[in-house]
């Protein structure tokens, strides 16, 4: 049956993945000469919320690195008043100077809720402050002190997060998918009957 591939392709195209969209964009801090230290003994984090299940595809922080061969580790932590356990993490080599740097081509699946994005630097650097659209909360950490709050929006770091929200099919879409799968099933049954008869 020639309509089997067509029916299958049409059915699968209904559930085709959406394009990544910006979830968080604090904007670029206007001045890279001051901010929050980000060195080997420190981590910085900011809290963000998701209104629906989302797959994160890109996570970046505005970093000013002074080191030649430093590594930036980015993690997504559970929500709460301070960052909780790490859900996902990855590392990337840092370039010197001030720019947005981070991870791409991710497939980090999160449910709706509150999360923290955290940044750790193996070398010497900082995250410039004063991002124009600050996150609701920010925190910093030193290994001997645990997480401490920094809620002054003027000290907010630059963060960009992109992702794809989980699509919830409309009733009409569900109906089309069911009809498509029924057509695929019917084509498969008729092929088996022809094979048995032959």
TrEMBL record:
The organism's place on the tree of life at top rank: Bacteria
Source taxonomy: Bacteria, Pseudomonadati, Pseudomonadota, Alphaproteobacteria, Sphingomonadales
InterPro entries hit by this protein: Ice-binding_C
Statement: the UniProt record of this protein carries the keyword Iron: no
Protein name per UniProt: Ice-binding protein C-terminal domain-containing protein
Record domain Ice-binding protein C-terminal: where: 167-192
Keywords: Signal
Signal peptide: 1-20
The keyword 4Fe-4S belongs to this UniProt entry's keyword annotation: no
